[in-house]
Amino acid sequence: MKTLLLGMLLGLGCTAQDLKVYAIDVEGGKATLYVAPSGESMLLDAGYEGNRARDAERIVAAARDAGIRQIDYLVITHYHADHMGGVAELAKRIPIRDTIPIAGLQVDVVTAAGVAAPRPPARAGAPNPLCGAYRPIEEDTGENSRSIGIVVTLGRFRLSDLGDLHWNREADLACPTNRLGTVDVYMTTHHGKKTSGVPALVGALGARAAIMNNGPVTGAAEAHWDTIHNSSGHPDIWQLHYATKNDKKHNSSRAFIANFEEENCAGRWILLTARRSASP
Fold this sequence. Notes:
By secondary structure, the protein is of the alpha/beta class. The protein has a single domain, classed as 4-Layer Sandwich (Metallo-beta-lactamase, Chain A), CATH 3.60.15. The protein is built from 6 helices and 17 strands. The strands form 3 sheets. An 8-stranded mixed sheet has the order 8-7-10-11-13-14-15-16, covered by helices on one side. Strands 1-17-2-3-4-5-6 form a 7-stranded mixed sheet, with helices on one face. A two-stranded antiparallel sheet has the order 9-12. Strand 13 (185-187), helix 5 and strand 14 form a beta-alpha-beta unit.
C-alpha cells in the first residue's frame, strides 16, 4: 500500500511522540484512523460494506502500517452507509474495544445530534467577523446534520473533523463566535460537497492544510474547493482522489493527490504525522 505523506508538508519528522492520522481511501466514503503517541487508536467511521470487504481490508492495512493490533476507540459520526457500513467486516478482522477518550490526545466533541457542545474547547470563543456574509441554505433533516464532530489536540497541534455536518450546523459552530478556534488541519466536511464547508467556519479555522476525503466522482465540489483555497490561511489541499468532474483548476497538483484511478483503484491513503512540540 502506497502512502502520501502530509507530515513532510508540515515540516515534521516521525518519532514515538507523534500523532499519526491516516485518511483512508474508501472511494468517497469516510474512514480516518488516529494513532496517539501512547499507541492507542481511534477510528472515525469505517467506510462502506460489501465490495468484497474492500474498505475493512484497507483500514486493517493502515492499522498494520501504524503498528497497532486493535481499534481502541470507534466513533461513527452518523448512520449512513458510507460511514458505518464497514463496521461488521472490520470487526471480523481486528478487535474493536471501546469509545472516547483516547490516551495521549485531547479529543473534544464539539457537535452531536445536531447541537453544538455548550462549552467550546480551549482557544475558542472569539467573535467571528466572517459571519456577516453567512446565509443559511435549506435545512437537512437527515443524518448529516446530526454528525458527531471532534477537535483533536496534541500539544499545540489541532485538527478538526466534523464528519458530514451540514452547512447550517457548521454555522452554529462559527457564528456569532468561533466555537472551534484555529486549527492546523481541516478534515473537509462531507467529502467536500457543496452543502458543507460554510466559509464563515472554514475561514475562521485558518488551517495550514486540508485533507479532502473525496471519491473520483463524490465530493470535492468546486465551491467547497474554492472556499478552502481562498480562505485566509490558503491551506494546501490534499485529495484522496482526483476529482474527475472538476476542471484542472479545481484539483490539486499531482503530488497532493493520493489516487488517480477510477477503476481498479489502489486505495492509497494520506498519512499525516504531527509532533507534540510542533509550532502552531
